[in-house]
Structures are given as C-alpha cells and as structure tokens.
Amino acid sequence: MKHYLLPILIVIGIATACSHSNKSIEKTDPQIVLKPFSDSLKADTFKLVLNGEKLQEMSMVFSITAHNGQQIYNKIFKATDLINNYKASVDLEKERTQVSFIKDEFKLFFDEENFLEPAVTENESPDQYTPDTLFYNELKKSGLNGFKYRSGKETSVYIAWSEQEKKVKPYYKCCN
User: Fold this and answer.
1) What one-character-per-residue DSSP string does 91-102 give?
2) Which 8-state DSSP code applies to residue 163?
3) In-domain check, residue 67
4) CB-based burial of residue 64 (10 Å sphere; 0-12 exposed, 13-18 middle, 19+ buried)?
5) pLDDT tens digits along 115-164
6) Could you point out which of 25, 30, 63, 97 has its C-alpha 20 to 30 Å from the C-alpha of 162?
7) In a domain, 10, yes or no
8) b (16+ CB within 10 A) / e for 130-168
9) What is the pTM assigned to this prediction?
10) Residue 71, CB half-sphere, CA atoms under 13 Å: how many?
11) Phi, psi (5° rounding) for residue 162?
C-alpha cells in the first residue's frame, strides 16, 4: 500500500504546479477620479478598471466621461503588452511578479503628476514630439487641462480635449 502513495503524491504535485498559471487573480476595485478636463470648471470622470481573472486575459480599461455624461475617451491596455514592453528593463519572468507589476501600474495610473493643469503653458513651444501643432496652440489659448499616461517603457502619451474638434486628442508623445 505504501508504494502506491508516492505516485499519487507525484501526480498531485504535478497537477498543482500546472494549475498555477490558471490561477484566478484577486479582483481590484475600479479607480475613479473627478477632474476638470473637457471644461475648465466642470469635473469629468476618469475611470480605470482592471479586467480579467487570469494574467493572459487581463487588461486595464481607461475611460473619460465628460461632465454631461458622454464618454469622450476609451483606451484598453492588454496586460501582456505592458509586460512585453517592460521585460527588457524589469525582471518579469515569474507570473507572480507580472501580476504585481500590472497591479502597480494600475495603482500609479492616476498619480497626481499625470494630471496636467493646464495641458500647455504659455511658455511652452511645440517640438518634434508634437503630433499636431495647431492643436497644441489651441490648448495654449484654451488653458484646458491635460492628462498623461505611459503606453510603454519609454513612451508617454499626453492627451487633452479639443474644443474645436469636440474630441480628446494626443498633443504630445515622447519618452519618459
């Protein structure tokens, strides 16, 4: 009877090790921040949700809803894409480390330094990282606020509301 116990324990050990990558990840509450964005006085709703129960399915969904209830921006970041963008500079070999990294990115997304008030100051000038000079100058005049987020290890995207085009647009894209 004793010689049957060892193979059973080995099978249980292998099954446990293999099921580790299918392990569900603890749910995270959405982050919600109210800040003026599409209007200089009225607050819009910035929301970030972490979706997915397994690392391969995880994504961060970022949205901005204007003070009038209209969604004006939506961006999805796949966890696997974020991990791949940082693998060269951060040790992300283990799944546990990858999950921790994604949760840290989620927590830091709405850091106060990412809310830019105003988006562009009078002293700033467009450069090679400015995709639309006319929009950049529009922001200078309007004084509306901006928001920046990292889209990769070395790239930040700066967005703001275009009053002329009635939509959120990038006004700067550059290195961290």
Assistant:
1) ---SHHHHHHHH
2) T
3) yes
4) buried
5) 999 999 999 999 999 999 999 999 999 999 999 998 877 789 999 999 99
6) 30
7) no
8) bebeebbebbbebebbbbbbbbeeeebbbbbbbeeeeeb
9) 0.83
10) 7
11) -95, 110
Which structure tokens are listed for 19? 């099921």
The string of pLDDT tens digits covering residues 73-108 is 999 999 999 888 887 767 788 888 898 999 999 999
Helix, coil or strand: residue 143: coil
- Residue 6 tokens read as 């060892």
**H or E element at residue 151:** strand 146-152
CA-CA-CA-CA dihedral for 78, 83, 86, 87, to nearest 10:
-150
Q: Is residue 59 part of a domain?
A: yes
The CA–CA distances, whole Å, from 156 to 18, 26, 125, 171 equal 37, 28, 18, 11
Amino acid identity at 111: D
Q: Taking phi first (over 0 means left), then psi (-120 to 50 degrees means alpha), and beta for anything else, what does residue 17 get?
A: alpha
Name every residue whose Cβ is closer than 8 Å to that of residue 26 and which is 6 or more positions away in sequence.
Answer: none
Domain tally, the chain: 1
Give the DSSP H/E element, type plus range, for residue 81. helix 79-86
Domain coverage including residue 118: 25-174
